[in-house]
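ZP: hey, is the adenosine-5'-triphosphate complex queued? I don't see it on the tracker
AM: it wasn't, my bad. submitting now with these inputs:
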Amino acid sequence: MSIQSIATGRARPWLLPAGWLLVTAVVANQPSLGLDAFWTRQIVLVCLSALLVSGLNLSLGWAGELNMGLPAMYAVGAYLTAYLSSKVFNDLAVCLVLSAVAAIVVGLLAGVPGLRLGGWMLAVCTFLLVGLIPVTLQVIPTSILGGQSGFVGIPRPRLFGHPLREEAFYAVVVVVTALWFALYRNAVKSPFGDSLLVLQHGPVLAPSLGLSRYRLKLTTYALASVPIGVAGSLFAYNDRFVAPESLGLHLILLTLVALIIAGRRSIYAIFVGVVVVQYLNNLSTEFDEWSDVAFGAFLVIGGLAFGGGIAGLARRVARRFIPVATAHAGAGAGAVPDLSGADLRLDAVRKTFGGVHAVADVSLLARAGQITALIGPNGSGKTTTLNLISGLQRPTAGRILLGDRDLTRLPAIQVARCGVARTFQTPAIPIELTVLDAVAAGRIQRRPISLLSTMLRSPKYRRVVRENREAAAQWLAVVGLSPVAGEPAAAMALGTRRMIELARALCADPSLLLLDEVASGLDRDEVEELATVLRKVRDAGATVILVEHNFSLVRSLADHVVVLAEGAVLTDGDPRTIAEHPEVLERFLGTGAGVSGTTLQEGRRA
Ligand SMILES: Nc1ncnc2c1ncn2[C@@H]1O[C@H](COP(=O)(O)OP(=O)(O)OP(=O)(O)O)[C@@H](O)[C@H]1O
């Protein structure tokens, strides 16, 4: 298989858009379907609910933040449309656009402080917005928004000066929903969506790849406001009456239940979730006073028992019937591009945690085009040193220089953007990414693409994504994982996940590569393959820092070895000198153990 064919992945990419267009054309054509008023209304309601669920899914499923302010954004779209169309200018397109913008603005009022404060504060801040709906309606004169009794007399919609008959409005609702879902799908099935999956992995991975958690979450949250505001606007035109009681917590309850049925991060399954909830909601008019209790109970039970929803179920079934390929091509086959490394210099770097001196005035020089091994027993400060270099922790004192760039006070995102890439002791592989996309994630920050370009699949988007995927495919060939490029990365065996992480770090074209116990858990053949790859990377000019317990690997690979003990440098030199150093032998390898033992801990125990 060629690099290009691995990078391209899916055959017949036009199939999905063509199918979606066909479905939209059929459903939008109400007269040919022969739908009566009941079914037309049901389809309109499904569309409005699907818009709401997609908004909630973006914030909760993709960005991991519960947006409790959904009814407030919906209310903004509905009341703005009611007011504009009745008293200012009646045009459906204008009202849709202004409602989306107003929903974003209102959402950001709560979203900016909520996301800055972190934790559950977004849910709390947005919840306050819902409380503001009745207060706002009390304050604004009844002659403007209708007060507690609601806004009546919303006119029939007009579009570009023409009045819209009922079937034309129905078609607009279907087309707007289909269009939004195409844009929503493009947004999440892209490097932007992959970045959101990286966010799900926890607080450390995203900054190490140069991705800002706050910016990504805020962008997603703002995007999530768009379909909610649009749904509010369409709702006002559809019912031609807006009342505060339809904008309460019941709305968020129904939306959450539909999302649970559809599954977090679902796309088209949202329509199934919405249809089920609508059916249950129609039934519940017979036991109206109990409906919130019933939906609340479903939320709890569904959340516990139905994790992943329909989308998750489909993925599990697919995994069961389509076996995961595990073939391995043998590492070191592909060509390694030039990696222009830079010298790394640590100057009396210190890190203390309370009274613990994790790193005590460490000075070292790691040269470009060399592998510098950092060895020492457990707790000697190796990982902390890597964390200080990569910006995940800040030094208490000292200086860190990469070439002539001072990294000492830079946060992890900036350090990553300066060309520092790393792996972790436990491989950090986000769920739901293919092996190819997990590797390409290493390059997302190198050439950012705007969200608009992403959603519209602009020529720039296509070019950058193709080039990134080709680079990822090239690194997969180097580490011998081309045969599993399309498989789910997180489901791979430990050795494969370590190679995926290594390929991801290399895919960023790093000037400095930090490897934290990259050989741990690998079998003999895998360690040999790893050594082959690392020699190629070194020969390509990268600066490599290798934290490792496997002393045989260190001996065979390292140009220079730095030995840490209790946070300080005990000694440094070439591997042969270190292997014969009396104190190293005595303290870590054991005087009788010799240096051919595989790990430092084993030697210490000897
Ligand atoms: N966040 C922290 N808070 C308090 N102490 C810490 C923290 N991180 C590390 N330490 C302490 O700093 C010392 C060095 O830890 P570090 O993880 O860097 O060692 P290491 O050489 O990488 O060990 P290992 O080989 O087990 O990974 C240890 O005593 C550890 O307990």
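AM: back. Residues 12-247 form one domain.
ZP: great, adding it to the tracker
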